[in-house]
Design brief:
The chain is about 30% helix and about 25% strand. With about 350 residues, it is α/β, with parallel strands linked by helices.
Length: about 350
């Protein structure tokens, strides 16, 4: 599905294209399932967000499939292996890639973000960015994990350092990202408070492990203080941005941490500096996950048998309907395209 302009579904067309070129360190993967992300929609509507984005473009970041060819230097991956792909590829050569910080690569390469992605039959990726899928996990199940699970792991484990017994608030509690965060925080021993717009979404958050659900229109700070016997939350993880900023900040305990990893509702906020430094709050940016985060997160997901719910499966040529499901904001979990 090739994007040729900016706009609605009409700017993306089903086309025959040349099979992706492989390098010596790459593998060619036949796509079995591709999870959709909001970035796909943002960049379809325009303008492109990621550096290096250009038209025509093939979106699709979260990919699982089968290896059908290998580069000359690839030795440890067999043809026919079922794999899930880290969409954050990197160049493999710069100092940030060498340090495992592929998200900060000096020549950023994100599958489906600024290089051809998984809304196609094949995708070529670096061999060191794929992980084997256990026999008891489906390709669709695996395709729900990469972006949400690895980003959530980075936020909870690496950035926030969530510890047993802590109280963690998760905004937009039924999004795929938040459902991953809830499960990861629960596994770290935290008590999770999920915030969402409907009872149905809060039910999904509770099924993922949230101990308390709070509707958007409720007084979050008061509710959390009552729940924590006056203390407030130790951590807030917020990928919504401007719309939830004040409530998130107000809900923190003295010395609390606020982890920021998204701005879907706006990019600019204002706040009292005195309120932050007098309360000893810490504002933590959790941008891109590391290569180590990705492997640890996917290993943990596979090992524990946890997964994200699938909101719907769509064939490649029914992509407009899949996008409509994502745009509705009524879905719980991931929308997956199956080429």
């Amino acid at each position: 599905m090739v994007q040729v302009d900016f706009g609605g579904p009409e700017v993306v067309h089903l086309r025959n294209v040349v099979e992706p070129a492989m390098g010596s360190d790459d593998v060619l993967v036949r796509v079995g399932a591709c999870g959709l992300n909001r970035l796909d929609l943002i960049q379809r509507n325009g303008p492109g967000v990621l550096p290096g984005f250009r038209l025509p473009h093939i979106a699709g970041m979260d990919v699982a499939g089968t290896v059908v060819a290998r580069g000359d230097r690839v030795r440890d991956i067999a043809d026919g292996a079922r794999v899930v792909i880290d969409p954050t590829q990197g160049c493999g050569l710069c100092r940030n890639c060498a340090a495992g910080q592929r998200a900060y690569c000096e020549q950023m390469r994100i599958i489906g973000g600024n290089v051809p992605g998984g809304l196609a039959e094949f995708v070529a990726v670096r061999a060191d960015t794929v992980m084997a899928i256990p026999d008891d996990r489906s390709l669709v199940d695996a395709a729900t994990l990469p972006t949400a699970w690895a980003t959530g792991w980075h936020a909870v484990v690496t950035a926030a350092g969530v510890a047993p017994g802590e109280c963690v608030i998760v905004q937009a509690g039924a999004s795929a990202m938040s459902l991953a965060i809830i499960q990861i925080a629960g596994r770290a021993g935290a008590t999770v408070v999920a915030v969402a717009s409907s009872d149905e979404k809060l039910d999904a958050a509770r099924k993922a492990g949230a101990a308390l659900g709070v509707r958007n229109e409720q007084q979050l700070a008061d509710t959390v203080r009552e729940f924590t016997q006056g203390a407030g939350a130790d951590v807030v993880i917020d990928h919504v941005g401007a719309a939830t900023w004040e409530d998130s900040l107000a809900s923190l305990s003295v010395g609390g941490r606020m982890v920021l990893l998204g701005n879907t509702s706006g990019d600019r906020v204002s706040f009292s500096l005195a309120n932050v430094f007098h309360r000893g709050l810490r504002l933590i940016g959790a941008g891109g996950y590391t290569a180590q985060d990705f492997r640890a997160a996917i290993d943990a997901a596979f090992g524990a048998g946890v997964h994200l719910p699938v909101a719907g499966e769509y064939p490649l040529d029914d992509l407009p309907a899949a996008w409509t499901a994502v745009e509705s904001r009524e879905t719980v979990g991931k929308v997956v395209v199956v080429p």
